[in-house]
Amino acid sequence: MYKIRIHGRGGQGAKKAAKMVGLAAFKMGKQVQDFALYGAERRGAPVMSFVRINDDPILERGYVDDPDVVLVLDRTLLDLVNVADGLSENGVLLVNSEHEPDIDTPAEVKNVDATSIALDTIGKPIFNTTMLGALAKFTNIISIDALNWAIEEELSKYPKELIEANKTAVRKCYEVAK
Question: Can you tell me whether residue 34 is helix, strand or coil?
Answer without folding.
Answer: strand
